[in-house]
Amino acid sequence: MNKTHASNKPTVSVIINCHNGEKYLKEAIESIYSQTYTDWEIILFDNASTDESSDIARQYDERLKYIYNDEIISLGAARKAAVDIANGEWISFLDVDDIWIPKKLELQMEALKNTNCIASYGGIREITPDGEKIRDFYPTSRNGSVFKDLLMQFDINMVTIIYNKKFAIANGLYFNEEITASEEYNLFMRMAVRGEILVQYAILGLYRVSENSLTNKQISKWAYERRLTLDKILLDDASLKVKFQNEFTEAYARADYYESHYWISNGEIDRGRILLKKISPINLRYKILYLISFSRKIWRMVHNKKIKLILSRYIKF
After folding, report:
1. Residue-wise DSSP of 248-261
2. pLDDT value, residue 3
3. Any bridge partners for residue 223, and if so which?
4. Which residues face 125 on adjacent strands?
5. What is the pLDDT of residue 304?
6. What are phi and psi of 204, to 5 degrees?
7. How far apart are CA 309 and CA 286, in angstroms?
8. CA nearest 292: which of 314, 253, 260, 251?
9. In whole angstroms, what is the distance from residue 105 CA to residue 36 CA?
10. DSSP structure class, residue 186
């Protein structure tokens, strides 16, 4: 498929949110211009960058629409602002330090044809800041109604997700501007309740892992924001708590784990251990984490980035 961009209403809008992203920005943009599927536009939302990001963005043609915001806003607010501007039927995202494989959009748009799916996502390859492979990560959810699976293990990534904008608007599904650490969890969990999602078991993009990633800085907010999302879903439809009782128990327990991790990492071990004790009966994973919390040395070792990467093949943190 090599569909030519022929109108002012492209099929796909690619959102790039940027704040001082000059180091990798050109590589990200080039991976979009290299797509075999060409019916797209780029909305590059510059969140008050002070580096050379604007100069890089202005090197491209009219398919890249550059918007400069003169004050820093939350990532959720920035993503929402960019989506509001987008003209495409489908919305996708590429952060400044990530990369798409050349057939990413072609594979997704071809697979979405003749389906009722409201979104699609696939696998990613995690890479170092220098571009070296760390590991390949494939979705674990089953294709179709994935909400139950996502309650157990949320694996939708921003590198490959693409969703139908008309469906999102019709169902009032927008990025929550007040959420700053897990805006994708909030939006796509609420989306998964309402429609089927196409899961593609192929590597569609490269995700650059760094110590300065937003998620690494803001783990203290994961617990609150996860509970906020789950509470909102149940407020909209309380029957889901009965239908997916075990899965909601796990989803809320994961929030407790995140909070306990935060407290233990900040030296408030007893406070964190209370939360782990509460969730330890749920499954063996939390029971092991509770026991590990009695040894700061083992806790730190288990949560060391390299060790955790190895353990994550067997235990979901």
Report:
1. HHHHHHHHHHHHHH
2. 39
3. none
4. 136, 206
5. 78
6. -110, -15
7. 18
8. 260
9. 8
10. H
Residue pair 280/287 in contact (Cβ under 8 Å)? The answer is yes
Instruction: Please compute the mean of the pLDDT values over residues 95-104 and round it to a whole number.
Output: 97
Q: Does the pLDDT value for residue 9 go beyond 80?
A: yes
SS3 137: strand
Question: Vertex 217, ends 212 and 219: CA angle to 5°?
Answer: 140
Look at residue 216 and tell me whether its pLDDT is greater than 50: no
Return the H-helix or E-strand segment holding 229: helix 219-236
CA distances from 221 to 16, 39, 158, 312 (A): 23, 37, 18, 21
Q: What's the CA gap between 176 and 182, in Å, rounded? A: 10
Query: pLDDT per residue over 183-212, tens digit each?
Result: 999 999 999 999 999 999 999 999 998 765
**pTM for this entry:** 0.90
CB 275 within 8 A of CB 286: no
User: Quick one: tokens of 102?
Assistant: 């050349």
Is 187:175 a contact under the CB 8 Å cutoff? yes
State how far the Cα of 292 lies from the Cα of 284, in Å rounded to an integer: 12
The domains of the chain, with CATH numbers, are: 12-211 (3.90.550.10), 217-311 (no CATH)
Instruction: Please give the sequence-ordered ranges of beta strands (E in DSSP) within the chain, or none if there are none.
Output: 12-18, 40-47, 64-69, 90-93, 99-100, 119-127, 133-137, 162-164, 197-208
Identify the CA nearest to 261 among candidates 251, 250, 269, 253: 269
> If you search the block for the tokens 């429609």, which residue do you land on?
195
| Residues 260-286 pLDDT 10s | 999 998 899 999 999 999 999 999 999
Report the interhelical angle of 245-265 vs 219-236 (nearest 10°).
160
